[in-house]
Amino acid sequence: MTEIGISILSSDLLNLEKEIKSIEKSKADYIHIDIMDGHFVPNLTFGPDIVAQVKRMTKIPLDVHLMIDNPARYIETFASVGADILTVHYEACNQLDEVLSLIRRHGCKPGLAIKPTTSVESIKKYLDKVSLVLQMTVEPGFGGQAFIEATLENLQTLDLHRTHHHLSYMIEVDGGINKVTGKKCVNAGADVLAVGSYYINALNREKIIQELKN
Ligand SMILES: O=C(CO)[C@@H](O)[C@H](O)COP(=O)(O)O
């Protein structure tokens, strides 16, 4: 079954505990936390303290997406505050092999993210070292953007590569996901849908999670 991660980027941050309880009630599989540094992406969001607070509030696994330059500097910090999956960007790392093994050494599942225009070819040599590949389906930085259809081709390539090489990484998509785009992604090979504004704005959050899962 498809798994759902809820991105807290667009949630009501002054009522974060209430939001986390709502995510638990709607039976999401992950809480997706976007860490932005104002360099790698043109926006600023959370630091490790927020991740630590969310961890204290819930048992839902935390899928922490580092949209930061040179993420090696912060792997130990985010691992120590409770990240379960720790995802770094291919475009932001110099020594990716080392960063991925650092993530594993600190007890997290390593994820590798790519921007919409990055090719799967460029990350193929790392795919046997990751637990998850995160295909950005919008330009990273902001919630509420429109899904980029051209990213579906990368999902098909990732899915074919996984089967062909007997690999087991999960394929996650993030950005502009709703009932229509989510279905397209799942049909193209995605296993995990990271959802932000579609969930936050829904009148019946439990219902839309069930629809997305099915
Ligand atoms: O990482 C990002 C944006 O950079 C996402 O996680 C967004 O938070 C998803 O929000 P929607 O596109 O679903 O509104």
Structural commentary:
The protein has an eight-stranded parallel beta barrel, surrounded by five helices. The relative contact order is 0.16. Helix 1 (16-25) links the parallel strand 1 and strand 2 (30-36). The protein is globular, with a radius of gyration of 16 Å. The protein starts with a strand and ends with a helix. The protein is an alpha/beta fold. The model has no long low-confidence stretch (mean pLDDT 97). The protein contains eight helices and eight strands; from the N terminus they run βαβαβαβαββαβαβαα. The protein has a single domain, classed as Aldolase class I (TIM Barrel, Alpha-Beta Barrel), CATH 3.20.20.70. Residues 7, 9-10, 32, 34, 138, 140-145, 174-177, 194-198 line the site of 5-O-phosphono-D-xylulose (5SP). Its cofactor is Co(2+); Zn(2+); Mn(2+); a divalent metal cation. InterPro entries: Aldolase_TIM, Ribul_P_3_epim, Ribul_P_3_epim-like, RibuloseP-bd_barrel. The active site is at 34 (proton acceptor), 174 (proton donor).
Short structural description:
This protein is an alpha/beta fold and 214 residues long.
CATH C-level: Alpha Beta
Total helix count?
A: 8
Shape: globular
How many separate structural domains?
1
Low-pLDDT stretches: none
End-to-end separation in angstroms reads: 7 Å
CATH architecture: Alpha-Beta Barrel
Average pLDDT for all residues: 97
Largest sheet: 8 strands, parallel, barrel
CATH superfamily: Aldolase class I
Small molecules held by this entry: 5-O-phosphono-D-xylulose
Oligomer: single chain
Kindly estimate the percentage of residues that lie in beta strands according to DSSP: 15-25%
Helical coverage, percent range? 25-40%
Structural class: alpha/beta
> Could you spell the SSE succession in H and E letters?
EHEHEHEHEEHEHEHH
- Based on DSSP secondary structure assignment, what is the total number of beta strands? 8
Q: What is the spatial order of strands in the main beta sheet? A: 1-2-3-4-5-6-7-8
Radius of gyration: 16 Å
> CATH topology, anyone?
TIM Barrel
